[in-house]
């Protein structure tokens, strides 16, 4: 964040606005910046951020400060982000909100989406580097006499030369970005192999591994988010693979399900599991087949399909009667509830909250009012 300087938010003469996006929060590295939500503006020269409420609070950073950038996908309770890695702050930089920062990167967190288009336009500007061209360009004079001698010769050869220079520059930038991405992928694979090696040492207790080292190794695995994932390479394919995967899911999902009230949509489970597995991603089909084996393996989890077709993973101890009683109690206390209001009360997704209300309605405890204002549930007094 120490690369940003205070700005009036106005564009320079040769500067053009490319795209702007509301609902963007800034991160100084991994830490939230001490700024509210604002508008991110991308121009041909700068990255600008302006506070929505206080328009005088505006900061900007030259695009020339950017080394590379990458997308960070959204997760459960987390917005999608663009991570931007930066050059060190120049010595003559103008004052800004941060004088010093321990990080060499920032994050743009997109609370109202729009990160895909913003990332695409940022990629175009970093490839074209229009901030370098506009400062050096001069108008071509026309006329006769002494002025004619200063007219630049621009013909087919000159145009072709310019096109070739731009192509080479673009190829060079793409090669640099791909090279850095390749290094990151190789590093991630090394981490996976390291985690497997550590896990095997813990399992077999090979060598002189003390109890303290064992605890430390386990903490390393948890911090990496990769606890020896079950893969087709290690456990083959077909039924045996899905059996082993189901057992690992049973251990992994116990705590998250308890934190979320005993139930999670299968889509949420898919995102949670793949984030923890790192590079060893699961396909939706493999996850579904593994979840179908919970009951046959007598694990404390169950795959449930509601009448609407929504699939969830729930704890076996999470009974249907408890869900119905919870829905009835909350609706009775409030007089009436929508799925959105019920979701806020329980801290669940709207999808799962609606399924609980529909289940209570099916059992005759609730009734509905479906109007232009939306679907609202009431205690069934009939």
UniProtKB/TrEMBL annotation:
Keywords: Coiled coil, Cytoplasm, Endosome, Protein transport, Transport
Any one of the GO BP annotations: protein transport to vacuole involved in ubiquitin-dependent protein catabolic process via the multivesicular body sorting pathway
Domain GLUE N-terminal intervals: 1-138
GO cellular component: a single term: late endosome membrane
The organism's place on the tree of life at top rank: Eukaryota
Subcellular compartments: Cytoplasm; Endosome
GO molecular function, one term: ubiquitin binding
Keyword Transport: yes
Stated name of the protein: Vacuolar protein-sorting-associated protein 36
Record organism: Labrus bergylta (ballan wrasse)
